[in-house]
Design a protein that fits this description.
Elements: E1 20-22, H1 30-53, H2 70-81, E2 86-88, H3 93-103, E3 108-111, E4 124-127, E5 140-141, H4 143-150, H5 157-164, H6 175-181, H7 193-204, H8 216-227, H9 233-241, H10 266-279, H11 286-291, E6 296-299, H12 313-316, H13 318-328, H14 330-338, E7 346-351, E8 362-365, H15 376-381, H16 387-399, H17 405-409, H18 416-443
Parallel strand pairs: 1-2, 3-4, 6-7
Antiparallel strand pairs: 4-5, 7-8
Helix pairs in contact: 5-7, 5-9, 8-9
């Protein structure tokens, strides 16, 4: 987002910062995330096929792929290298960006998402796709001009977006409705957007006034016309209000609502500390997503050859993640035990790997660490001098319980992470690889 006092998008280090929010995937966007990850996995397969069969060169624009984890790492590049004030969202990223821009009187939002022309936020919605980084020239999408050209009022745009398809009401769920209203147009399969938009606007004519003031009976009527029944009227209300800024989100609940909340548990302190650092982009996003319900970890596509026998990195590193989950969720397990419940903790994993169609997530058990390992509450919040040593011991135990911390100290600090990863791959990764090969032989 741009503000009048800070006009540059990427300022020189040390100059006035630009404000940017970066995405943590909310549940409502999961279907779209899955769709993009599946397509990305197909693109990666095409890259390896092109290289092996057609001898394509890495410079070929047709097989271009951004490096793995660029989406996650870019925030830290902007914050620490470009010295920009950078934030990571807790809920819906688009909403947080729009609210930030409105709250801070920003000049505009630089992005490439049609939702920003619907939000009543900054005056200018500037196209990142059309941005010339040398001249800083780009295209402005004018909300008022857009609504005027369509013959609508600005506050009717949320209903238009809901009837065309958005993150709440997906376009494929509206296909029958779009076919019905475009029956006079010539099309094969799906109607063209240039045919759909005027028909949807005509459909909206009886529903005058702001989308936010539509009564329940009107929403029932819209649902009846679109889906054939009134059961999804609330879905339209949810979709419309997804564009209303400054709505208070429900407070997060760490454990079952029936659990006693009379005493402040260390886990709540940990969640508060993690959320603060997460928002300020001082922490990788996985910590917050695993600690806060519904406890989710996700990984996008890696540049891996799915045709080879090598297992995917998402699976090889899973045993390591399971140990880390145990440390992060130790306070939750303790609280479950205090309530007399069996503390079998699990984490939802959305991982892209060979053979996974992402039709549903993997539910992964937390693997307990050796007795005596300190929980994240202690490692994160405790300020005693010995905590530094506990952190070091925990790191070493996560990589390998058989290699002593004293032996790890002999590795030069600049090589430590590389040696740790290689050690894990040669020990745990190799065992996983041969176990998979043996399993395939038995199945065959």
């Amino acid at each position: 987002a741009w503000s009048p006092e800070q006009p540059k998008i990427v300022p020189a280090p040390g100059s006035a910062p630009a404000k940017i929010a970066l995405l943590q995937v909310p549940d409502v966007k999961r279907p779209l995330w899955v769709q993009r990850r599946v397509q990305n996995a197909k693109d990666v397969e095409d890259i390896f096929r092109s290289v092996k069969k057609m001898h394509a060169k890495p410079t070929d624009s047709k097989i271009f792929q951004l490096p793995t984890s660029m989406g996650m790492l870019t925030r830290f590049i902007l914050k620490y290298e470009c010295k920009m004030e950078t934030y990571t969202s807790i809920v819906e990223c688009d909403m947080e960006v729009a609210e930030y821009a409105a709250r801070n009187n920003c000049l505009g939002i630089l992005a490439q998402d049609s939702d920003y022309i619907v939000f009543d936020s900054a005056p200018y919605y500037l196209s990142s796709q059309n941005l010339n980084v040398d001249t800083l020239e780009t295209v402005n999408y004018d909300r008022d001009a857009f609504a005027w050209a369509l013959g609508l009022k600005v506050d009717q745009l949320p209903l238009l977006a809901s009837l065309l398809g958005n993150d709440v009401i997906h376009s494929h769920d509206l296909l029958l409705f779009h076919r019905k209203i475009c029956k006079d147009s010539k099309f094969v399969g799906r109607p063209r957007i240039e045919d759909i938009v005027p028909k949807v606007i005509h459909f909206m004519k009886p529903f005058e006034g702001s989308a936010y003031s539509l009564s329940q009976s009107v929403l029932n009527s819209i649902s009846k016309n679109v889906f054939g029944d009134t059961s999804r009227a609330n879905l339209f209300q949810q979709s419309i209000y997804s564009y209303a800024l400054f709505q208070a989100p429900p407070p997060p609940i760490l454990v079952d609502e029936a659990a006693s909340m009379s005493l402040k548990h260390p886990t709540e302190d940990l969640l508060e500390a993690v959320e603060k650092e997460h928002r300020n982009c001082a922490l990788i996003p996985y910590m917050h997503s695993v600690l806060a319900p519904p406890r989710t970890w996700e990984s996008s596509s890696a540049l891996e050859d799915y045709a080879s026998e090598q297992p995917s990195s998402a699976l090889i590193y899973r045993p390591l993640r399971q140990r880390i989950y145990s440390i992060v969720l130790a306070g939750v397990a303790e609280r479950e035990a205090e309530q007399g419940r069996e503390a079998r903790l699990q984490v939802i994993e959305w991982c892209v790997y060979k053979g996974n169609k992402l039709e549903k997530p993997d539910v992964v058990d937390v693997v307990p660490m050796p007795e005596g390992t300190k929980p994240a509450e202690v490692l994160w919040l405790d300020e005693r001098p010995e905590v530094k040593e506990w952190r070091w011991e925990t790191f070493c135990t996560c990589i390998s319980a058989k290699v002593t911390p004293e032996r790890w100290r002999k590795v030069e600090p600049k090589y430590l992470m590389l040696v740790a990863v290689l050690h894990f791959l040669t020990k745990v990764g190799a065992i996983f690889f041969f176990a998979q090969k043996k399993s395939r032989r038995i199945t065959a």
